[in-house]
Automatic annotation (TrEMBL):
This is RNA polymerase sigma-70 factor. Residues 28-92 form the RNA polymerase sigma-70 region domain. Keywords: Sigma factor, Transcription, Transcription regulation. GO terms for molecular function: DNA binding; sigma factor activity. GO terms for biological process: DNA-templated transcription initiation. Belongs to the sigma-70 factor family. ECF subfamily. NCBIfam families: Sig70_bacteroi1 (TIGR02985), sigma70-ECF (TIGR02937).
Amino acid sequence: MKQVTFAEESQWVESLRSGDAKGFEKIYNHYWAKLFSIAYNYTRSRETAQEILQEVFVSIWLKRTTLPEQLNLKGYLYQAIRHKIYDHYDKQVVREQYAVNKALHEPVMANTTEQQVAFDELNTLLDQQIEVLPETTRKVFILSRMHGFTIPEISREIQMPVKTVEYHLSKALKFLRYSLADLLILIFIVQF
């Protein structure tokens, strides 16, 4: 990546702020490869990395009139890509939680013996994997997913900071997602 001076970047930002597509194009051309590399290193997916970059650059264009005059462009872009990567993972966790909850709680239309056995195996394995979790992580997971407590409610219940509760819940979901992934795939294949 060619070195650019702060003055050059300031001109690009000023051009962008005034709605000139050339300023946007210079920012895009200069930072695209580095930002793509960061996104790809986290996601390991070219498509996902490109989607994240597209979101970052669309956001910059839409917010162009509100960008500060003395903007550290490189820092701003790196922070923007980091936030979009976090958003991507948050959305992914929500989709996976939805799939697991749907698989566990939705009644099976054609309740065959094979499906019932697979469902029972999943519940047994889920219970076994929950028991493997460290005590605090297990308690947070059970309060959240089995008793329907919100994170602030869990925080009050077990007298733990909200961020710590979020950490334990994230840890539990990540562990369960990886430990049960193969069985979930088999269950979905059996159902369809």
